[in-house]
Amino acid sequence: MTTNDVPLLDSGHARLNQLGYKQELKRDLSVLSNFAFSFSIISVLTGITTLYNNGLNYGGPVSMVYGWLVACFFTMIVALSMAEICSSYPTSGGLYYWSAKLAGPSWAPFASWITGWFNIVGQWAVTTSVDYSLAQLVQVIILLSTGGKNGGGYVASKYEVIALHGGILVLHGILNSLPISLLSFLGQLGAAWNFLGVFLMILIPSVATERASASFVFTNFNTNNGAGISSRPYIFLIGLLMSQYTLTGYDSSAHMTEETKDADINGPRGIITAVGISIIVGWGYIIGISFAVTDIPYLLSKNNDAGGYAIAEIFYLAFKSRYGNGVGGIICLVIVAVAIFFCGMSSITSNSRMAYAFSRDGAMPLSSLWHKVNKQEVPINAVWLSVIISFCMALTSLGSKVAFDAMVSIATIGLYIAYALPIFFRVTLAQNRFVQGPFNLGRYGIIVGWIAVLWVMTISVLFSLPVSYPITLETLNYTPVAVATFITISQFDHENQEDMNPLSQYCPRSMDSPPIIQPFETTISFSLSRFSVEAESSPIDQDDSALSPIARVEPRGNVTVKFKKKKSQL
């Protein structure tokens, strides 16, 4: 079929052209694949398993069961606002491009630069914490497999753990060097593994010979935290970290939009679906595992067989009490470890796409190096940059556990600040000029956006509060120090980043100016047995050859392709 030599591109490709970017990555991902990357990064098996100790210590079952619902409600609010913006601007840059577009020409360079750096540093921190958590879990699996802490089991040193962490990162780098079609398959496999793995873990209490009561799971509030904190509201709020840390990384769907078919529709779908399903299965996981909790102090004790790793001890004891050995529990831990492995793999994927887009806009040192793609259309240099930086960030664990623990909070706060900035610009500076895409919140977009911004402000304060008293150098929460330092450095360096404006590099005209479009209308019709296609598009002012119709297919009898003047502002 020909339409006067005008190619029929999908809506995401056409919109990318309108935004001024060249299609360089292979657009081969379905909505399922897009969802799979975000779902694998959220990975409730990863977040809940690795921070279950935190939840038990700060409030116990009540803070986890009900805190999860609180965090999930507001996370969905944030996700809805992000999805609406993603539908309008489906680019791999995601958040920082959105900020530039929404902040207006005067603020665009600073808005995009600060958002981008919060985003990419937060992503690197997430990858670091995920893969380091996997290394720690593998160490616990080895410990239990060799007899446990009380049976002479092997305890790896911190240097062995960091070496294992490096090996995991290298494997993730190799996998992310594969063509996107293979990576898409692995992403879908990871999503399925995470989904099915949760349901297997929920069955653990059915194996245990001793189980908690429903009253314990839904009403027990643990105040015996050994941290000098007795205020129940304070404990509950600090306990939200487990839930909020778990529910991060869904911006991956936005970063994968340049490789997703019909990205202006499927990108938002990926975000919302990943968060929604994670909310349901995560709550089930928390409730299920909590029914196997009978002695909180013992689970948190460094002297148990798992060395204080609460969920590992729960799994191990459940099978040991029933069958006389903990082999079944170790197998369950291996299932969780594989889920975390997929989570880390998808994290590197998202990191590399963000680094690719950010360097494409000249925001990183040696930018020309990081946005190169290989013959398989993979940003290979950005992949290995993410691997190296994530390993370097994990080296903080050798010097101070406190410093590394702060990284978990930074991963959460950094990402959510990056999530909130474009939403803030959308409800303030761009309130009257934001052009909604196919997915939108209609008249509720403003109020939903404000709720999202206020929630991010709230958790940014909460996760910067002290988690132990009295405050010493060992117990100080270094998160606010790290975030304040980053903001200060970024502001200083921003003075040398005036050229960092994704809009000026690719769309030289002012954002507030309407696109220059020559009026025309062409209609092309032909018969087709079962479908009709209607498409419309308008050329961007820089290059009329970039004209690409956006099609809608309906079960009728004809195909009509229309090109006409479009008045909406880019």
From TrEMBL:
InterPro entries: AA/rel_permease1, Amino_acid_permease_CS
Organism, as annotated: Lupinus angustifolius (Narrow-leaved blue lupine)
Topology within the bilayer: Multi-pass membrane protein
Gene Ontology cellular component terms for the protein in this record: membrane
Subcellular location: Membrane
Membership in a protein family: Belongs to the amino acid-polyamine-organocation (APC) superfamily. Amino acid/choline transporter (ACT) (TC 2.A.3.4) family.
Protein name as catalogued: Amino acid permease/ SLC12A domain-containing protein
Keywords: Amino-acid transport, Membrane, Transmembrane, Transmembrane helix, Transport
